[in-house]
Amino acid sequence: MIFLEKWVNVLPAGIPGRMWAVNFNNWCRPCKCKPLKRPLTCGRPAFIFATQPIKLGLMIKHLEHIGIAVKDLQQANELYEKLLGVAPYKEEAVATEGVRTSFFKTGQAKVELLEATSPDSPIARFIAKRGEGIHHIAFEVDDIAAEMERLRSLGFEVLNEQPRLGADNKLVCFIHPRSAHGVLVELCQERVD
């Protein structure tokens, strides 16, 4: 017998709205219809046996920004100002990363342009290897330390031991691209001073 697990929203043991891992081998015994098919083929109540409760409280809130590596920040600012129809709302240097950034607000998400300030910075190495383009995507989280721990426990390669100070008043950390199908993922949390 093959044991299959899938995430489904069921109401086991009177606990509404929780996500559970479900054993799909628990079919309706008399007719073998699939219990998650709506409506049930046989009309009988489906007894789905939950195998593992999952803590909800999703940590990732939304896409925060897309980071784009550029060779010339001033030239890129002019181009994106024309493209998006708005001026950058902030420019700042992040000395620890060897980068200058500018931010454009586009709806709920942002576009971050990144220019290297030294030839050995991560952005300079990225441009030398891959050229200008999308460098990372960033997701806003409520508790960056807890999210780092959660992702480590799931097997993701978190590049930072602790969150560090980033641009736009954020605490940040990164997930290695080999853990995310070739995409550098940034987690960020609003810094409270």
Describe the model:
- By secondary structure, the chain is of the alpha+beta class.
- It has 2 domains: about 1-55, no CATH class; about 60-190, 2,3-Dihydroxybiphenyl 1,2-Dioxygenase, domain 1 (Roll).
- It contains 3 helices and 11 strands; from the N terminus they run E-E-E-E-H-E-E-E-H-E-H-E-E-E.
- The chain has helices at about 75-85, 120-130, 145-155, and strands at about 5-10, 20-25, 50-55, 60-70, 90-95, 100-105, 110-115, 135-140, 165, 170-175, 185-190.
- The strands form 2 sheets. It has an 8-stranded mixed sheet with strand order 5-6-7-4-8-11-10-9. A 3-stranded antiparallel sheet has the order 1-2-3, with no helix packed on it.
- A hairpin with a 2-residue loop joins strand 6 (about 100-105) and strand 7.
How would you name the CATH homologous superfamily of the largest domain? 2,3-Dihydroxybiphenyl 1,2-Dioxygenase, domain 1
List the domain count as a whole number. 2
What do the pLDDT scores average to? Answer: 79
Sketch the major β-sheet.
8 strands, mixed
- Count the E strands: 11
> How are the strands ordered across the major sheet?
5-6-7-4-8-11-10-9
Q: Which structural class fits the helix and strand makeup?
A: alpha+beta
Radius of gyration: 23 Å
Can you give the helix content as a percent range? 10-25%
Q: Kindly estimate the percentage of residues that lie in beta strands according to DSSP.
A: 35-45%
* End-to-end separation: 56 Å
User: So what's the CATH class of the largest domain?
Assistant: Alpha Beta
